[in-house]
Amino acid sequence: MSDFIDHVHAVHREVGRRAIPAGDGVTVLLRRRFDSPVADVWDACTRPERLARWVAPVSGDLRVGGSYQLEGNARGEVLHCEPPRLIRVSWVYGEDVTERDISEVTVRLTPDGDDATVFELEHAAVDDPEFFDRYGPGATGVGWDGALLGLAFHLAGTDLADRDTLHTTEAGRAFVVRTSREWGAAHRAAGASAEDADRAAAATAAFFAPES
To answer: In this protein, which residues make up the domain named Activator of Hsp90 ATPase homologue 1/2-like C-terminal (predicted)?
Structure first.
């Protein structure tokens, strides 16, 4: 369990805003340093057979202008790509979506010496005020925390076992609760009251990892 908690503290989290085509978007940003060179991290983020090992199986035309589908998850279009430093995709989850439901995910990689990489992932979405009030940024951020946990294991050479059911284990639930609290702290740093941020963080933890 302590290994998972170490991974929680390895990530810096921020909440902000920026404009996206769908409107004024709320952003969640995760930043983490990996002891792997940029070329390896880029390969893990863009090659389908490696993405399947830490996110989900992906299909489609993975070029700028092409579309992709994550199995059991989101779909979208490749909007921008600058190997090996930046990739931006649209992110569409669910059916019968409107333009406001189309968000953007951007991954930026920066070398930290020859053998390490600073990884940043930003997800920008036009929020539903009622939903955001209830769950806060953790509704988006906690899922990405789980993905970064999987990426950390993958880059270290040992893929995360039982990734899809991790939240049902004691260690996995503790990870979700801790990351939800960290998103609560980022929410407060962005201007939310402590009461609102803590309430939303608790709701997020209960949603992703309900007590049995």
So the answer is: 36-151
Listed as ranges, residues in the chain with pLDDT below 70 are 1-2, 212
* Helix spans in 55-137 (H): 129-135
Helices in 23-112 by DSSP H: which ranges?
Answer: 38-46, 48-54
Query: Strand runs (DSSP E) across the chain, as ranges?
Result: 12-20, 23-34, 58-60, 67-70, 75-82, 86-91, 103-111, 117-125
Nearest to 105 by CA among 75, 150, 65: 75
Query: What pTM was computed for the model?
Result: 0.95
CA 31 and chain centroid, separation: 10
Q: Is 127 left (phi over 0), alpha (psi -120 to 50) or beta?
A: beta
Look up the CATH number of domain 2-208: 3.30.530.20
Residue for token pair 């589908």: 69
Residue 183 structure tokens: 């998103």
pLDDT tens string 71-91: 999 999 999 999 999 999 999
How do 117-125 and 12-20 pair as beta strands? Answer: unpaired
Handedness of CA 165, 167, 169, 175 (dihedral sign): positive
